[in-house]
Structure formats: C-alpha cells, structure tokens
Amino acid sequence: MTPITLITGASRGIGAATARLCAQHGHRVVINYARDAQAAEEVARQVRAAGGEALTVQADVSQEADVLRLFDAIDRHWGRLTGLVNNAGVVDVAARVEDYSMARLQRMFAINVFGSFLCAREAVRRMSTRHGGAGGAIVNVSSVAARGGGANQYVDYAASKGAIDTFTIGLSKEVAAEGIRVNAVRPGITDTEIHASGGQPDRAWNLASQIPMQRPGHPEEIAQAICWLLSDAASYTTGALLDVGGGR
C-alpha cells in the first residue's frame, strides 16, 4: 500500500524538506500551508519533477474548521491517511515573559499545540484499527528548546514544545495497540526561515559556537529523522523523543 502522508507547514524549511524526502521514499505527499500558496506549489512541483505525487491544501491548523476541511480533501483525493507530520509552528520576537501579550500567547499555543492536537485527532480517526483503519505513524516536530526553556527569548515557544513532548508520550500509549506509532523529533538550531519570522534571520549561524558540532542543522537532516520514524524501519519505536541537535 502506498503511504499517504500529510505534512503541515510544508511550504518551507523542515516541512518542505520532509515533503521532498518522503516523496523520494514513495509516499504520496499532502503539502499543507497557511498562506504562501506559491511556495507550497513550488514544493509540489519539485516532488512531481522527481516522480512523486503531491497534493497542496491550504489550511490554518489552529482553526478546527480548516483542519476538518484539510482532512476531508485528503479523504476525497487519496483515501485514508497513513502518516502525519505535525510540523506547522511559529516563534515570535525575543522577549521576557513579563512582556508577553495575551495575543502572543494565544497565537503560539493555538498553532504549535492546539493545531497538533486537532490534526492528530483527525489522523487517529482514520488510522486506528479501532475505527477500521490499517494503522499509521504520527511524528510531532518538537524542539530541544523544550529541555532548555528558552529563557530571555522564547519561553512561550519552549513551553509549547514541552507540551508537544508530553502529548507525544501520552498519545503514543493511548493508540499503541491500535496500529499507530507516535513519536517526536526535537530539532536543535536549524538553518531555516523561521528565525527571520522572529526578527533574527542570522540567528542559526550566530549561535553556531554554542553547538558542539559548531554549526546549525540543515532542514534535510531533520527530515531524515522524521522519515525514519514514519517508516517500517521504526516499527518498534513509539513514544520516543529523538533529539537531532548537533549534540546540544
């Protein structure tokens, strides 16, 4: 059976790299994006040029109606999902907790946490043998920041990823006997566009000296770990939090 894998936030960075790599491994790839249709279509073009199959679907994962529409589109186009990568996420400008607005906190947790819950809920409803599914795999993209805490910069982001770690462990136990494996990859500092969205486009390389390997990661290196966890090679792995952070 050809794997059908949804990757949220797949128009750039780790998500785009994962879409390309999954396609190379024979997955039909659903490229979800929130706003940048042109970037998503470019990733889809790359997948198709390499001989893969791609479907692009716009949806804001923090909105339940959008998530329902996203999964309905997959159902109608290809049928039951077999893989989910909860990759969509945001950061904000560096700030201390005492300066956070409620709007900032709501946005952070709505996308990074609630979006992952909503997508996982819909995936389980399709994958679980309890619901007539054939099983599947869910990979949540967390961060090593969940261990470090993000003091003086991104405590809210780190806390949202800490929630993802706990969510991964709990859900993995809940569905382990229903054919679904649930794991998380925790990237370290990775050279992607997300740093620019937080106002620090050069942050990855500026922090290279703090990384034991003395460089930031590449999106393709994180994608390798995600694709392994999706694959049958990881058939006895569930509830794992896999650090891919250059030793940090």
Layout: helices, strands, pairs:
Elements: E1 4-7, H1 13-24, E2 28-33, H2 37-49, E3 53-58, H3 64-77, E4 83-86, H4 102-127, E5 136-141, H5 145-148, H6 155-175, E6 180-187, H7 194-197, H8 203-206, H9 219-230, E7 241-244
Helix pairs in contact: 1-2, 1-9, 3-4, 4-6
Notable features of this structure?
single chain, 248 residues, alpha/beta, Rossmann fold, seven-stranded parallel sheet, 9 helices, 7 strands
Description:
- The chain has a single domain, classed as Rossmann fold.
- Helices cover 44% and strands 15% of the residues.
- The chain contains 9 helices and 7 strands, in the order βαβαβαβαβααβαααβ.
- The protein has a 7-stranded parallel β-sheet, with helices on both faces.
- Helix 1 runs parallel beside helix 2, helix 1 (13-24) crosses helix 9 (219-230) and helix 3 packs parallel to helix 4 (102-127).
- The radius of gyration is 17 Å and the shape is globular.
